[in-house]
Predict the structure.
Amino acid sequence: MERATAEALHGMMGVDLTAIPTIGVNTALTIASEIGPDFSVFPSAQHFCSWLGLAPGTRVSVGKPLPGRAPKVVNKVAQSLRMAAMTARRSQTFIGAGHHARLARKDAPIAITATARELASLIYTLITRGEEYVERGTESYEQRRVNDDSRDALREWESLLKYFVKNGTPDCPNGSRTRARISRRSTGWPTAIALFLYVFQCLMASG
């Protein structure tokens, strides 16, 4: 019965939503009945998440949070996606790995909402593009996490070295010319290496 329902939903929605980890027939049925296959009313995934009440809080003014709570959005699709997100901790998939990572650094309700938002964005992308879900696996998530950590470390390294370039010792030889050359470089490892050599040169000259 569930398989026949899933096939009928596949035909209606244009993609197999039940192929997405944690998205069962009941969740797919809710999406089909509440929205249908036409997502054109939502200009982007961000608009879709906002309609669901899953978008990050935006109650700020002049960079400061506004007092009071944001209005609560009661949405059947959002409720179904949150319930699906709750099962992600048992899923040995790309989405499951992401949910485990969120649970390690956030409170459970926040992690569940973030995973529900990820599911919503994924559903929006698949339906609007007419693409089927392709599982990438936990190894792919781990590799992406490592790459993200490396990029974050590089940004911190560049920020620190640029501080020394801007506020470096006056004894550094050819300081102004070196800083000018570095400032014209793009970001990335070449810049980090150039900055490191510059700081090393300054330290050697002042030592």
Summary: Confidence is low (pLDDT under 50) at residues 58-63, 173-186. The two ends are 78 Å apart (CA to CA). The beta strands are 60-61, 64-65.
